[in-house]
Amino acid sequence: MRNKKSITLSCLITFFLLGASLHTVKANEITEVNTQNINQVENTKEKEQVVDEEKKQEIQDEERVQEQKELEQESAKTEENDAERNEVEKGNENTEVREDEKNSVDNETPSNDEQEIELDDSKVEDKESDDKKTARMLSTNKASDSLEKGVKNPQVISLKEQLTKLGFANFKTPNKYYGKRTEQAVKDFQQYYGLKVTGVADSKTVEKVNSIANSPLQKGKRHQDTISLKENLIVLGYLKLNNPNTYFGSQTEKAVKEFQSDRGLKVTGIADPVTVEKLQNEADAPLQKGMSRSDAVELKEQLTKLGFANFKTPNKYYGKRTEQAVKDFQQYYGLKVTGVADSKTVEKVNSIARTVLYKKGKDIKMLLH
Q1: Is residue 223 within 8 Å of residue 246, measured between CB atoms?
Q2: Vertex 333, ends 328 and 334: CA angle to 5°?
Q3: Phi/psi at 277 (5° precision)
């Protein structure tokens, strides 16, 4: 009996120990699973943190890119505004406000560029010396050895350079061969300046090429004739200056080019004899719209006196209202209606203005002599 109890107790103890062992094992498994879950959660959190960090970095990068774009846009806008302001300033320099057409005083003021800023004398001298060197190279060519088609001569290089400068050719890298294109350029030059058209660069042709290519009436040079040149450009509305000087600057060159282009001349910016003559003839022509000349002041005063206009402070500019007043006058007195103050019109204006006693509009009461 005692043995049975012992066996039973022993079995109980064994079962107890076995159950405890199983519990421990299961607890360990649960702990291990929990540990794995915790690790997974931590890993997930770490991954999420990495993703978040990457997203933050991307957002920051995008923000930096956006800021850079905005800065570039602002910079571009600033440059565009600057460019617009420069264009406006240039436009203001080149476009004369016609205050006489608004019955106000013409208060022209020269811009900085209009003052024709002087170049450093040494630079001007260097440019002149280079031109003289080229001229000397060409001038050594005598009538006995004129340059013509088929010839190879170092002087042909200088000739081609000069013809390109004067707008009769376009030799990018001139060589010493006198070919068909050179011959045609010489013919065009000879025809343009009234020389005998042969295509041969004889002494007269070479001399003419040199004189024009090295004219003192071009950008960077000084000459007394530049003053009258500027005055004529002012009269015709191509230039706006108060006190023209002897310096031929960039604005004068631009004005000359515009005049040459409008008149179908060679556009070089050099005031060659053809350009100078054309300018002088037009500047001396009868007053008409777009011109600015001192005799326009007296004409406006007379037209106002006769009741065809109302210029309170007449100036030199012959604008749209002046043209209309002249047309009205011409029509009223049976003259050819052109709007141009030709000699007949001016003579008629002056003769009637001398006999006027008083006026009321166009009902003019006259005291005839």
Answers
A1: yes
A2: 100
A3: -65, -45
